[in-house]
Amino acid sequence: MSDTLVSVEHLTKFYGDHLAVDGVTFGVRTGEMVSIVGPSGAGKTTALRIVAGLLEPTSGSVTIGGVRVTGPPPDVAVVFQDYSRSLLPWLTVLGNVTLPLRAKGLSRTAARTAALDALAAVGLDGTARRRPRELSGGMQQRVAIARALAYRPKLLVMDEPFASVDAQTRMDLEDLILPLRQEYAVTIMLVTHDIDEAVYLSDRIVVLSPAPSTVLRVIDVDLPLPRSQTATKELPGFARLRHEVLDLVRARTD
Ligand SMILES: Nc1ncnc2c1ncn2[C@@H]1O[C@H](COP(=O)(O)OP(=O)(O)OP(=O)(O)O)[C@@H](O)[C@H]1O
């Protein structure tokens, strides 16, 4: 747990004249789940896209496993909020999950086995032959998560992955991700607006200031594992952490 997988160093991003990110530095250790929170427009998505190699920083650097990111790295998978745009509607569920595996060089049989395992792991047995549009929003997001995990990434980057589903489904997806982290031995970076979600899921939380964003604080979440939507959220430690993060995020937006 102690070695650093992701190093974000002095990251700065201008959009034209607009300074969005101003010298953001933090690290993510192997096996950790780290959330990035901050007020709207703080540059959370910008920072995450730079980590995933989807956007170039103006200055500063990101390294993953000691290798500098200059484009989408082969061992990083991404899950976005908008599952309806990330899944290919003309492919079956199985086709969607196997596509990146085939591109990675897995044989048809190996890709199919990995995809079916991942679909089972997210509770989607029996959906392989269906099309994304035949599934509910929560199920489609599970397909996107299965696709990311089947790929066996070192790092899973998620931008508001649970924001487009109802509250109950959101909790189900949060509880799905927690054990899958261990099962797939994956390090996770998550952007979320939801402070309860950040505290519930994370090992550490990076709190960004409003744009131009800097790191206000990195908070250790010392809540016991396994976590539970009821028991964990009733702990005094949960309330204390929630309070601390909320104060930081809100103080700067008033
Ligand atoms: N492509 C772009 N061109 C110009 N400005 C942009 C672009 N993308 C983002 N910005 C600006 O950069 C700042 C940071 O945006 P970003 O989306 O990274 O923030 P965020 O914290 O993820 O926001 P939110 O919480 O609202 O999703 C904002 O002021 C935004 O308007």
Automatic annotation (TrEMBL):
<dbReference type="InterPro" id="IPR017871">
    <property type="entry name" value="ABC_transporter-like_CS"/>
</dbReference>
<dbReference type="GO" id="GO:0005524">
    <property type="term" value="F:ATP binding"/>
</dbReference>
<dbReference type="InterPro" id="IPR003593">
    <property type="entry name" value="AAA+_ATPase"/>
</dbReference>
<dbReference type="Pfam" id="PF00005">
    <property type="entry name" value="ABC_tran"/>
</dbReference>
<dbReference type="InterPro" id="IPR027417">
    <property type="entry name" value="P-loop_NTPase"/>
</dbReference>
<keyword id="KW-0547">Nucleotide-binding</keyword>
<feature type="domain" description="ABC transporter">
    <location>
        <begin position="6"/>
        <end position="235"/>
    </location>
</feature>
<dbReference type="InterPro" id="IPR050166">
    <property type="entry name" value="ABC_transporter_ATP-bind"/>
</dbReference>
<dbReference type="GO" id="GO:0016887">
    <property type="term" value="F:ATP hydrolysis activity"/>
</dbReference>
<protein>
    <submittedName>
        <fullName>ABC transporter ATP-binding protein</fullName>
    </submittedName>
</protein>
<keyword id="KW-0067">ATP-binding</keyword>
<dbReference type="InterPro" id="IPR003439">
    <property type="entry name" value="ABC_transporter-like_ATP-bd"/>
</dbReference>
<keyword id="KW-0813">Transport</keyword>
